[in-house]
């Protein structure tokens, strides 16, 4: 399990390197090299319309992750589902995040399976109504569990048990410096052929014809660029953390050489609304690279680890009401959870 945890950290770092170029370029003008003027205009319109989305149906979503060659054995995770989200009654301007949750309606059903050394499968359904989270697990039969989210958030904030203070999330989101974002985009623009665009007509989603706009990300030149003085100068403007991140570029070069990434947005041609997103990611980690990054010598006979990930989501009924009903006879677990949090807070720290 320890090696799988390290593998997850490595994948997160690769993801930061991989997706930052596409999103930073898109954030500037909604356009990618290789797209036509009409496709660029459609992407820009969809970006502008995102702020107007208050409700939608998740027509379908899927997540698949497979790992081959890991020391613990090959494994695969598959998740599929559907749902609805309606945030029409939410007030994102309130300083109290618990109060904002009172206006959220959400329903999500999913089926998940894990194949590998420890095969598992199950189904879950989540609902959020009036600030209450309802959970139904296939292991629990027909018994719904209920948690009052505002109470949990307040208890966590008072006891310091939350890893992130929810009241700071909005402030952090609003603190992004547009100048720094532009500088990041300019830095990545110096990498030749790092991100290129392609487009195609795609089947309709919710009876709306869509245009599939794909960002094709080639990481091979990224590590080479991060080792240049131009990269160090560009990233220095974003802070010491970003500048130090550039030093990792050469270490990741073997991963960059074997990584393929495609991110596709599905945009309605008539309504200019985002109707879906898919991400395809594949990479291979050879034993020498793993040893360099983890600091552990590879065992004899260690094989390369191949990872592939696919995520897809399609949205329908945008800005149409999405009613969600609270299930009857749910078992309220709020007091038990908050009581446990209070006990943890009250437990004295053992003296050394």
Lay out the secondary structure.
Elements: H1 2-29, H2 37-49, E1 55-68, E2 75-86, H3 97-100, E3 105-115, E4 120-129, E5 132-137, E6 145-148, H4 149-159, H5 169-174, H6 178-189, E7 195-205, E8 208-218, H7 220-226, H8 229-236, H9 240-246, H10 249-257, E9 260-268, E10 274-285, H11 287-294, E11 305-316, E12 331-332, H12 334-346
Parallel strand pairs: 6-12
Antiparallel strand pairs: 1-2, 1-11, 2-3, 3-4, 4-5, 5-6, 7-8, 8-9, 9-10, 10-11
Main attributes of the structure:
twelve-stranded mixed beta sheet, alpha+beta, 12 strands, 12 helices, disordered N terminus, 352 residues
Commentary on this structure:
The protein has about 350 residues and is an alpha+beta fold. The chain has 12 helices and 12 strands. Strands 7-8-9-10-11-1-2-3-4-5-6-12 form a 12-stranded mixed beta sheet. Strand 1 and strand 2 form a beta hairpin. Helix 1 packs across helix 6 and helix 4 packs parallel to helix 12. The protein is globular. It starts with a helix and ends in a 6-residue tail after the last helix. The N terminus is likely disordered.
List low-pLDDT spans.
Answer: 1-14, 20-28, 168-176
Q: If helices are DSSP runs of H or I spanning 4 or more residues, what is the number of helices?
A: 12
Strand order of the largest sheet: 7-8-9-10-11-1-2-3-4-5-6-12
Mean pLDDT over all positions: 78
Please trace the helix and strand order, writing H or E for each element: HHEEHEEEEHHHEEHHHHEEHEEH
What would the principal axes of the Cα set say about the shape? globular
* Rg: 23 Å
Residue fraction in strands: 25-35%
The helix content, as a percent range, equals 25-40%
**What's the number of extended β-strand segments?**
12
Mind summarizing the main beta sheet?
12 strands, mixed
Distance between the termini: 30 Å
